[in-house]
């Protein structure tokens, strides 16, 4: 199912992803935070936190926030689930093994059928290390039909009649060329719903960038369709001066797109 093309209308001017870190909210405006220590299993050969693990930490905080108000349990009992649609992350300085970081999160309102959640990572002495904004769809976990978020969102977590200035963009990629590089979905890529975990897509992009000798400055990813065990995901690539565009397809089905600032 392609949830992206049918349900999202953008009404605000676009913002360049390289400016989004300065657009992120102040720590005191967030609703929940948790302190983590970066483990040895979360870093790359340079000793820095992997982008995939950064995304994992952001989403762990999101779950802890929802669970703190029993919102996660209530959704499960109602056979409802959140599906991540778009995710944008900007980093100033990735933390290293052994660093302590504090990650903040908050619901940032609703536009149409999409609910927004913001993230902020602070390091030593309150230094801003990374920020993220995500947009989510609420689905019936059995029928996969989309549910209006206002029917499920508690007002203390998400302000229904508000939306953030920073809204993750829908990609419109053209003229990409097929790459010799692709990935096969493995069991370790799967989540509780038995389809590919959204951070696995980030891992695939990160691996591709490292193998090409390229450094990620910021990442924007659109999740377009479900992907399952055994699927062969082919990459289609377009490289510009300061940007790499990636489209992942299984056969004719587009499953994700990514825009990476380099």
Per CATH, the superfamily of the largest domain is: Hotdog Thioesterase
Q: So what's the overall shape?
A: globular
Terminal CA distance reads 31 Å
Number of β-strand runs:
11
Q: What would the CATH topology of the largest domain be?
A: Thiol Ester Dehydrase, Chain A
Sequence of secondary-structure elements:
HHEHHEEEEEEHEEEE
What can be said about the biggest beta sheet?
11 strands, antiparallel
Q: Over all CA atoms, what is the radius of gyration?
A: 18 Å
SS content category: alpha+beta
**Tell me, what is the CATH class of the largest domain?**
Alpha Beta
Low-pLDDT residue spans? 1-19
Number of domains: 2
Relative strand content? 35-45%
What's the helix count?
Answer: 5
Overall mean pLDDT: 87
**Estimated helix fraction:** 10-25%
What is the second-level CATH architecture of the largest domain?
Roll
Keywords: Fatty acid biosynthesis, Fatty acid metabolism, Hydrolase, Lipid biosynthesis, Lipid metabolism, Transit peptide
Pfam family, one: Acyl-ACP_TE
Domain Acyl-ACP thioesterase-like C-terminal: 181-238
Domain Acyl-ACP thioesterase N-terminal hotdog: 31-146
Structure in words:
By secondary structure, the chain is of the alpha+beta class. It has two domains: 4-151, Thiol Ester Dehydrase, Chain A; 177-261, Hotdog Thioesterase (Thiol Ester Dehydrase, Chain A, Roll). It is 18% helix and 35% strand. Strands 1, 2, 3, 4, 5, 6, 7, 8, 9, 10 and 11 form an eleven-stranded antiparallel sheet that branches. α3 (51-68) packs antiparallel against α5. The longest helix has 18 residues, at 51-68. The chain is globular, with a radius of gyration of 18 Å. It starts with a helix and ends with a strand. Mean pLDDT is 87; it is low at 1-19.
């Amino acid at each position: 199912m392609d949830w992206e093309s049918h349900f999202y209308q953008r009404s605000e001017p676009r913002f360049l992803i390289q400016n989004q870190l300065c657009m992120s909210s102040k720590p005191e405006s967030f609703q929940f935070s948790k302190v983590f220590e970066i483990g040895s299993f979360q870093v790359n050969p340079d000793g820095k936190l992997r982008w995939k693990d950064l995304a994992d930490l952001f989403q762990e905080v999101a779950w802890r926030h929802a669970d703190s108000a029993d919102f996660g349990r209530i959704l499960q009992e109602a056979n409802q689930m959140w599906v991540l649609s778009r995710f944008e992350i900007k980093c100033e300085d990735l933390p290293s093994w052994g660093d302590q970081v504090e990650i903040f999160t908050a619901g940032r309102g609703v536009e149409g059928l999409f609910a927004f959640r913001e993230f902020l990572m602070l390091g030593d002495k309150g230094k801003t290390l990374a920020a993220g904004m995500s947009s989510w769809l609420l689905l019936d976990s059995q029928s996969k039909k989309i549910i209006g978020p206002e029917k499920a969102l508690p007002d203390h977590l998400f302000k229904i009649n508000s939306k953030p200035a920073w809204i993750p963009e829908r990609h419109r990629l053209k003229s990409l060329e097929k790459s010799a590089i692709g990935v096969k979905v493995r069991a370790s890529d799967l989540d509780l719903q038995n389809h590919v975990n959204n951070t696995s897509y980030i891992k695939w992009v990160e691996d591709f960038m490292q193998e090409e000798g390229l450094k990620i400055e910021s990442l924007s990813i659109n999740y377009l369709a479900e992907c399952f065990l055994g699927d062969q995901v082919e990459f289609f690539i377009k490289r510009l001066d300061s940007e790499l565009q990636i489209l992942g397809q299984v056969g004719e089905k587009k499953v994700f797109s990514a825009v990476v600032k380099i």
